[in-house]
Design a protein that fits this description.
The chain is built from 14 helices and no strands. It is mainly alpha-helical. Helix 9 runs antiparallel to helix 10, helix 9 runs antiparallel to helix 12 and helix 10 packs across helix 12. The longest helix is centred in the middle third of the chain and has 35 residues.
Length: 410
């Protein structure tokens, strides 16, 4: 096990990274409207951060690790970039520029450093404890999803109660100032308390030559692709659900930004508790069986989010929210199992490569979910989730033999 403080700082990092993506969701539409942009633009503002993290940020961090740059130095550089990106996001209102918002969210995305946690855990945590540690790591994501709308609602109430509504500080820009402050505090904690891994055994991007007569083991196998699909679908669902719920609550149910934030925070709090509770059963459920069961549960739960007609009575709202909570909870556990399985089912020399691929698909999933949540209606929203998790369950059942721990796993 790694030093407790270093592991705790990585838990805090994933919390901040997800919080940074989601805290702007309740106000993104208002911010876009203030700058004369459309609803699609607000989805783009949310999607850009995880998209650029997957396309450029993670490959850049991976290359830095390959060339021997210490992980602590990478985290410090990336967190400093996140501070600047959030300040730029907050200043976009003063500049009245849509391009500045896009540039700011791009900078935040590139500097998110999502790769640090999984790689550090893969280096320092033994295979027997890795599932539980990664479940806790993933649970911090669920906690961030819960806290983001709550903090956004509280920040909006704060500026409105104090009647602060100028171009620099208002309900749209305060999330940027708030995240810049949190990242700055975190930067100081990393400088003084984070410990790098002592001489980590970093695997080569190209595997060693097999012995004579021994076939070379393949990296891209159906089992690994199934796990990567699980890692892609879960963040797609999480981000899509949040963006879609905000749109539904504010435009169909006519709730205010603060009310939407409180309701969404309560919903995501239930999801976080479910994700945390699931870590207690990991010693009793085999990872591949857990992936299959939770995929089926997510598929069944998603059927409750179908809505027929245009009116929303109390019963239809209750059924939708029930399906929303169950689907989100099951989806979070699906990602936990995907997190845990990816480094276990590949040969040790491929462990870092697998972690890299896993983080890329997670970020692309978050980016896609934000954009889809902004444009989907209730029918396409529900149908996409039912179909996606049904396909995942079928693949998990078909390739269950490839979802067991590798004989040389470390």
């Amino acid at each position: 096990m790694p030093p407790c403080m270093s592991l705790a700082l990585l838990y805090i990092l994933i919390f901040l990274l997800v919080l940074n993506v989601e805290i702007v969701v309740p106000t993104a539409d208002d911010y876009a409207t203030r700058l004369g942009a459309s609803e699609t633009f607000s989805g783009l503002v949310i999607a850009l951060t995880p998209f650029w993290q997957g396309i450029l940020g993670i490959p850049m961090n991976y290359t830095m690790l390959r060339h021997g740059v210490p992980m602590k130095s990478i985290i410090i550089i990336m967190v400093a970039g996140s501070v600047l990106g959030n300040v730029l996001y907050a200043m976009a209102g003063l500049m009245h520029s849509k391009l500045v918002i896009l540039a700011a969210r791009t900078m935040v995305g590139i500097c998110q450093c999502q790769l640090a946690g999984p790689i550090y855990i893969a280096w320092t945590v033994g295979v027997k404890k890795r599932t539980k540690v990664l479940f806790m790591y993933s649970t911090m994501t669920a906690v961030a999803f819960c806290c983001a709308p709550l903090i956004a609602a509280l920040l909006e109430i704060f500026v409105k109660e104090l009647r602060i509504e100028d171009l620099v500080l208002n309900s749209d820009t305060i999330p940027g100032w708030f995240m810049a402050m949190l990242y700055f505090i975190y930067l100081l904690l990393v400088v003084f308390f984070f410990e790098d891994v002592a001489d980590p055994q970093v695997s080569s991007p190209t595997p060693p030559e097999p012995a004579e007569g021994e076939p070379q083991e393949k990296f891209w196998k159906p089992g690994l692709l199934t796990c990567l699909l699980a890692s892609f679908l879960s963040p797609t669902t999480s981000t899509m659900c949040i963006v879609f719920f905000v749109k539904l609550a504010e435009k169909t149910w006519s709730l205010s930004v603060s009310a939407t934030g409180f309701y969404l925070a309560a919903a995501m709090g239930v999801v976080a508790l479910m994700s945390f509770a699931s870590s207690a059963v990991t010693p009793y459920v085999e990872d591949r069986k857990g992936l299959l069961i939770t995929s089926l549960c997510a598929c069944v739960s998603a059927t409750l989010t179908f809505h027929i007609g245009h009116s929303w009575d109390t019963a239809s709202v209750v059924v939708f929210i029930l399906g929303f909570l169950l689907m989100q909870s099951c989806s979070g556990v699906v990602k936990n199992y995907g997190y845990a399985l990816v480094p276990k089912i590949v040969a040790p020399e491929y462990k870092d490569n697998a972690g890299f691929a896993n983080m890329v698909v997670i970020q692309l999933g978050r980016g896609l979910g934000a954009q889809l949540g902004a444009v989907f209606n209730t029918t396409t929203f529900a149908a996409s989730q039912v179909g996606s998790y049904f396909v995942l369950a079928v693949l998990a059942a078909c390739f269950t033999g490839q979802l067991k721990q590798h004989a040389k796993a470390m």
